């Protein structure tokens, strides 16, 4: 059976940024889009460069990757239904990381130059761009602060809360998440074995369900209650931030 055709106009219509445009503007942008199919991991934009395209991920992932000459490696995947990346498209500075496709991925690429030209005189569209950039800023700020606030187990719970928030949308309550043990390890948790032990500890507490190649969050409320255990007056700043993002 041939793959289902990708409805580019529908992708634009569903995005809060492009929903503010006229039908003619969306048709023009749709006409400039290209469908990309990757069968192997592919470098899209090198660190120190500005991306030429804003990509909507249809399948697989687009990964924000930072690697070092000493062998250090960190990866933040952007999964289907999301865009990579608004900051890359509208930021004035080059990327501080590489952009890679996953081994098997499909994306719709829109030229950044045309997007910028189209929305530059549309205040509502620009406001929506700020909202999208803000979502990732909240995610990354919360994650950075969690390193000092929590030990490994609660830090993993906090990561799952951030990932399943409406702002991030990587995971959804009650559904297998696209975050694998390998992905979680790249968030500073170490090897798959260490991640596996942490997840099994959370599973024993009923906070997650483990599936082959995936994790299920049965209840965000349980994760929030676990994060709040021992917190004075249940009002620590990170708990508030996680709830606000939900």
Shape assignment: globular
Task: Note poorly predicted spans.
Answer: 233-239
**SS strand fraction:** 15-25%
When the domains are counted, the total is 2
CATH superfamily of the largest domain: Winged helix-like DNA-binding domain superfamily/Winged helix DNA-binding domain
Structural class: alpha+beta
What is the tally of helical segments? 10
Q: What's the gyration radius in Å?
A: 19 Å
Amount of helix: 40-55%
Mean pLDDT: 87
Q: What is the ordering of alpha helices and beta strands?
A: HHEEEEEEHEEHHHHHEEHH
CATH fold topology of the largest domain: Arc Repressor Mutant, subunit A
Give the structure's gist in a few sentences.
44% of the residues lie in helices and 19% in strands. By secondary structure, it is of the alpha+beta class.
Describe the structure.
By secondary structure, the chain is α+β, with helices and mostly antiparallel strands. The chain folds into 2 domains: 8-121, Jelly Rolls; 131-245, Orthogonal Bundle (Arc Repressor Mutant, subunit A), CATH 1.10.10.10. Helix content is 44%, strand content 19%. The chain is built from 10 helices and 10 strands. The strands form 3 sheets. Strands 1-8-3-6 form a 4-stranded antiparallel sheet. The protein has a 4-stranded antiparallel sheet with strand order 2-7-4-5. Strand 4 and strand 5 form a beta hairpin. Helix 5 (123-149) packs antiparallel against helix 6 (152-163), helix 5 (123-149) runs antiparallel to helix 10 (237-245) and helix 6 packs antiparallel against helix 9 (220-228). The protein is globular, with a radius of gyration of 19 Å. Mean pLDDT is 87; it is low at 233-239.
């Amino acid at each position: 059976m041939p793959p289902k055709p990708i409805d580019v106009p529908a992708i634009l219509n569903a995005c809060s940024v492009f929903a503010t445009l006229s039908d003619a503007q969306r048709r023009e942008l749709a006409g400039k889009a290209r469908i990309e199919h990757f069968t192997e991991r592919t470098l899209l934009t090198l660190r120190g460069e500005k991306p030429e395209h804003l990509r909507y991920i249809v399948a697989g992932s687009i990964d924000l990757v930072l690697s070092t000459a000493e062998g250090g490696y960190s990866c933040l995947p952007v999964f289907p239904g999301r865009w990579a990346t608004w900051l890359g498209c509208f930021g004035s500075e080059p990327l501080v990381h590489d952009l890679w496709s996953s081994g098997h991925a499909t994306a719709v690429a829109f030229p950044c130059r045309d997007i910028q030209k189209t929305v530059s005189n549309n205040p509502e569209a620009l406001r929506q761009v700020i909202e999208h950039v803000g979502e990732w800023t909240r995610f990354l700020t919360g994650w950075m602060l969690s390193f000092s606030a929590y030990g490994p187990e609660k830090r993993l719970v906090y990561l799952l809360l951030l990932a399943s928030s409406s702002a991030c949308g990587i995971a959804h309550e009650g559904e297998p998440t696209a975050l694998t043990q390998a992905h979680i390890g790249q968030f500073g948790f170490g090897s798959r074995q260490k991640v596996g032990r942490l997840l099994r500890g959370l599973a024993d507490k009923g906070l997650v369900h483990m599936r082959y190649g995936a994790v299920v969050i049965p209840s965000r409320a349980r994760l929030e209650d676990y994060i709040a255990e021992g917190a004075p007056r249940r009002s620590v700043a990170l708990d508030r931030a996680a709830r606000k993002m939900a």
